[in-house]
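pinging the channel bc i need a second pair of eyes. not urgent but kinda urgent?? the chain im working w is below, pasted from the shared doc
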Amino acid sequence: MTARPVVGVFALQGDVREHVRALTSLGVGAVPVRRPGELDDVDGLVIPGGESTTMSKLSIDFGLFDPIAKRLADGMPVYGSCAGMIMLASTVLDGRPDQRSFGAIPMTVRRNAFGRQVDSFEAPVAVAGVEGGPFHAVFIRAPWVESVGDDVAVLGSIDRAGADGAVAPHIVAVRHGAALATSFHPELTGDLRLHELFVEMVRDAA
């Protein structure tokens, strides 16, 4: 890999422009990925916020699902925010029966766990290993992580009522090897620290 890595952004649906803008501002090559052949030119992949069921369907329809799954199994670094977190999970609760995910992180994720669009909120979230204080985190129809495998690092959690009204700590940021995921949307706030962490992961994987 060259000194200037190229990061692809899954571009069939979701906050594509926001992630491309964040990566570009860090001096990284950032390109949209819509076709299998475009995966050959990237050193890492971002799966943005959006609608995970739509992402699942389109990735299959456009022939992207299996090539992405293979690259992830081979160790390509990946970062998923919100719907991207769902796409990286090994188990998805409250999804569609035909919904598929890449299984890059051994974790169980619940879709829309914090509620519907009207239940969107913002809150501070401290992320382990990231200096500079808590993130001003934006949660939009966000998932949470219900359980993780033994080798998954929990980087952040938040005390919040879920759709059932019960207040409890919920996992909202995890890392598993070269895979990073958050329930919230750093691409919408201008805080580039998580993107910086991911770029470091891409460089380390070279």
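so The chain is about 25% helix and 35% strand. and The radius of gyration is 16 Å. — does that match what u expected or am i reading it wrong
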